[in-house]
From TrEMBL:
<keyword id="KW-0328">Glycosyltransferase</keyword>
<dbReference type="InterPro" id="IPR012317">
    <property type="entry name" value="Poly(ADP-ribose)pol_cat_dom"/>
</dbReference>
<keyword id="KW-0808">Transferase</keyword>
<feature type="domain" description="PARP catalytic">
    <location>
        <begin position="56"/>
        <end position="269"/>
    </location>
</feature>
<keyword id="KW-0520">NAD</keyword>
<dbReference type="InterPro" id="IPR051712">
    <property type="entry name" value="ARTD-AVP"/>
</dbReference>
<protein>
    <recommendedName>
        <fullName>Poly [ADP-ribose] polymerase</fullName>
        <ecNumber>2.4.2.-</ecNumber>
    </recommendedName>
</protein>
<dbReference type="Pfam" id="PF00644">
    <property type="entry name" value="PARP"/>
</dbReference>
Length: 269
């Protein structure tokens, strides 16, 4: 039987209900975005059906050129406002002076390959609701793959690491209360402790997509040898709690550094 195409003209097949009923559009995001903003865009399930979700998220500028290779650093007011909302939830005396979305085909391919691998392994659903989700619009949040516990998390870093990202490279800093690993938080105060100052007296924080995969939740308090869990093939990350939640992963392919935020204290030059 020939498939029916989405009425929004996105070119994808119509979605189907569990009972076999055919919907007028490919997914709810496509219907919503067409109505609200006059464009096509998809949720993660639609992307998985269409191409195993190796395409960039719909809101990236590069979605238009894919599958051609791409590299874009997209700034602008919208991106800066979102960064400010996330930062000022916990750091009201700081402001985002610049925020860039890094759209990089090399990093994205590496990340989506790992994400697909975790999906095939069918990891256990973890009950994680990072507070970053509350500052990101609904239609962007629906691009997260909850099957692999994909979330947006913060990572305080250095200028050197930010430069590496713009060259298709990612150099995560590592180490802390839970042994070796790459650390994230959903509370900007925590990530701020790991961010180093630039010569211009700014600090740098990344807002990353992180595919947590199988999550080992630790009892409260530090555990300096928590990296021992990395040997367990069903564990891809740990969630520990000190004065804030700390998320630790061991494989940089589980991280996509989507936004670089440059921020500084309000009142300084
Ligand atoms: Zn559609
Ligand atoms: Zn769709």
């Amino acid at each position: 039987m020939a498939s029916v195409l989405c009425q929004n003209g996105c070119g994808r097949d119509c979605g189907k209900g569990a009972d076999g009923r055919v919907f007028p559009t490919c997914c709810k995001s496509c219907a919503y975005l067409k109505k609200e903003r006059g464009l096509c865009g998809h949720d993660i399930d639609c992307d998985i059906r269409a191409n195993e979700a190796v395409c960039p998220p719909w809101y990236w500028k590069s979605a238009a050129v894919w599958p051609e290779p791409f590299h874009e650093e997209v700034g602008g007011e919208y991106v800066k406002e979102m960064g400010t909302k996330i930062l000022q939830r916990r750091l009201p005396d700081w402001k985002v002076v610049r925020c860039e979305r890094i759209e990089d085909a090399v990093l994205w391919d590496k990340y989506t390959a790992k994400r697909a691998q975790l999906r095939e392994r069918s990891v256990a659903k973890a009950n994680i609701q990072p507070e970053t989700a509350e500052s990101i619009q609904y239609s962007a949040n629906t691009t997260l793959d909850h099957r692999v516990n994909e979330v947006w998390l913060l990572h305080g870093t250095s200028e050197e690491a930010a430069k590496a990202i713009s060259h298709s490279n990612f150099l995560p800093s590592s180490g802390g209360c839970f042994g070796s690993g790459i650390y994230f938080a959903d509370d900007a105060r925590k990530s701020n402790q790991y961010a180093s100052r630039t010569a211009e007296d700014q600090k740098i924080m990344l807002l990353c997509r992180v595919a947590l995969g199988g999550v080992k939740v630790l009892p409260e308090g530090q555990d300096r040898s928590a990296d021992r869990f990395a040997a367990d093939p069903s564990i891809d990350s740990i969630l520990g709690t000190t004065d804030a939640k700390e998320f630790v992963v061991y494989d940089s392919a589980q991280i996509y550094p989507e936004y670089i935020m440059y921020y500084q204290e309000i009142g300084t030059a």
